[in-house]
Amino acid sequence: MLDIRLILEDRLRVEENLARRGLKIDLTNVVALEEERKLILQKTEEKKSVRNQVSKEIGRRKAKGENPEAIMEEMRILGDEISELDTLIKEIEVKLKEELYKLPNLVLDSIPIGADESANIEVFRVGDLPIFNFEPKDHQELGVALDIMDFERGNKVTGPKFVFMKGLGARLERALMNFMLDYHGENGFTEILSPFLANEDSFYGTGQLPKFGEEMYKLDGYGYYLIPTGEVPLTNLYRDEIIKEQELPIKLCGFTPCFRSEAGAAGRDTKGLIRMHQFSKVEMVEFVKPENGENALEELLENAGGILTALGLPYRVVVLSSGDIGFGSAKTYDLEVYLPNYNGYKEISSCSLYTDFQSRRSKIRYRNENGKNHLVYTLNGSGLAIGRTIAAIMENYQQENGSVKVPDILVPYLGVDIIE
Q1: Active site residues per annotation
Q2: How far is Cα 112 from Cα 169, in angstroms, rounded to an integer?
Q3: CB-based contacts of 153: which residues, under 8 Å, 6+ apart?
Q4: Per residue in 39-58, pLDDT tens?
């Protein structure tokens, strides 16, 4: 959520920043609602001041034995007027909050300006691309032939874009989960096992609601949603709390299944594990002081990339343009792993700095040594999406006979060095 004070003080700059996203947003209504709220609030305070004076006068008259009935009637009328104004203020605040919830975050000046992903800029590449002396297969073909993936029964039991992972396929998912969590733990992250459901307040806090409601699964009658990412429960762990300054930075990681309806994604990545309604992921979330936000983003990127390097998977990093960046992010790096079947790179992690966008919504603050409260900066990043990591391992490590070599770092976790 954007700071209403910033909108009031520098409305044109805010509108110009939002325009970088390709959005033409007129903040007139937001400004008008806040000015109306402040005007009515001033009237309310004036009437409350009068009420206090009248209340004292009633006390004095009673002490003198005089009848205060005349001014008590005045007091009742004044009380009704104050009550009506308080109700009106609450109604305006609801409307104002609804308007502010619709506004995306301001982007940093350091990101490229452009209409869509074509304006993204590649930052660097890591690793050598595989060279095959045979025609490589895609991961779905390999997985089905090795009997470690069953898409047909996933479709039968649930529907399209669901899969059964079997035998070494299931063990590979578990091995990656343990490896990723161990890796993050060695880099200062505290492991959290969170709920896989969250309430509406949590989704408003991280910015999925109200904009992305159609892309999530809701449990009617309960007010809960299945989480689309571990970012939601991990960030909301500190919602409505004040953190001690000396506790920052806080670095959390956690494994969760993720559930997405993928509304509007029909026809994209229809085969294999790339775009599923249910998939597993290890997520990283950080809470830092504002002055450390951009450095923390670079470290988060390094941590996610370190997993790909350890697995021996070639990847590249791109910084997202203003037209491709997420709703709540101020700056995002995408890590894209190389997939031979695509003859190109596919996103496997997004590392984002949200500045105080989420913390203002969620009321996550820290108290400095002077006793003053400030909003923290939040960050999150996939570390990594496990299904896509499996796809990348299978396609990059496949052998001519249809088997798949296991990356050395995973052998102790999986117990075998080849899937055949």
Answers
A1: 260, 275, 347, 350, 388
A2: 40
A3: 164
A4: 999 999 998 888 888 778 77
